[in-house]
């Protein structure tokens, strides 16, 4: 029976809490002088990245190595993929190598789902197109829970380029599953056309939402995915949808600021906010390793039920 993590929409509340609770236990390892467990010794994890992502790839590599797995980093650039090899041929190569898990990032939405049909090992979606990025949502939820306690009834506001954000979709589904109330704030041009299956509210007025939010998550404006003008100017976008110290002053006491990174400092988030005490941005990076350890542990150790359904 195959076991994968492809989408946060596949996770039940029990699945999600199992991952977060396991990550909490594994966080204790990060505090040790020797940050290693023998749990996945003899297992092979392949990082298959068709898009650049230094932090996510390094985070998965660190997570696998802390669990004593062997790690193979496969970059599509300069490989046979760039010479025209298909995803299926690459999958068959990984299968022949005996990969126990494949962590895939791909520019095409749905690529991890296709890969899961071709390999016997577990597949973890590390970001596919503008579709999903489940481990980012899990590390975000883990960070929120550490700062705020349980997420039931918490109000989370996700702001910015929702249209091009795989992080936003994954977070909306996961946070809803965990009992939080999510509001998306963006210009109409930066919201997807079809959002019928998104369990959240939508607002165009950032200032109106701020006083009643527990978490503000700022999204990066993804210029590289934009082939048209989605807003009049960077300055106008920042004025209406950027988080600066004045806006942060309207947030309730105890509310936190998040950003999945990388940031456009001075555009969607001011440097003083990003580096302030309410910011969890550095914690998110640290927690990413812990949460990805939990995902790999649960998928590969064989001692727990599958997370995120079977294929």
Automatic annotation (TrEMBL):
Pfam annotation, one family: OTCace_N
InterPro entries: Asp/Orn_carbamoyltranf_P-bd, Asp/Orn_carbamoylTrfase, Asp/Orn_carbamoylTrfase_sf, Asp_carbamoyltransf, Asp_carbamoyltransf_Asp/Orn-bd
EC code(s) of this entry: 2.1.3.2
Catalyzed reactions per annotation: carbamoyl phosphate + L-aspartate = N-carbamoyl-L-aspartate + phosphate + H(+)
One GO CC annotation: cytosol
Residues the record lists as binding carbamoyl phosphate: 55-56, 105, 133, 136, 261-262
One of the GO BP terms on file: 'de novo' UMP biosynthetic process
Origin: domain of life: Bacteria
Similarity field: Belongs to the aspartate/ornithine carbamoyltransferase superfamily. ATCase family.
HAMAP family from the UniProt entry: Asp_carb_tr
Job of this protein: Catalyzes the condensation of carbamoyl phosphate and aspartate to form carbamoyl aspartate and inorganic phosphate, the committed step in the de novo pyrimidine nucleotide biosynthesis pathway.
Protein name as catalogued: Aspartate carbamoyltransferase
Organism: Sphaerisporangium album
Lineage: Bacteria, Bacillati, Actinomycetota, Actinomycetes, Streptosporangiales
Gene name for this UniProt entry: pyrB
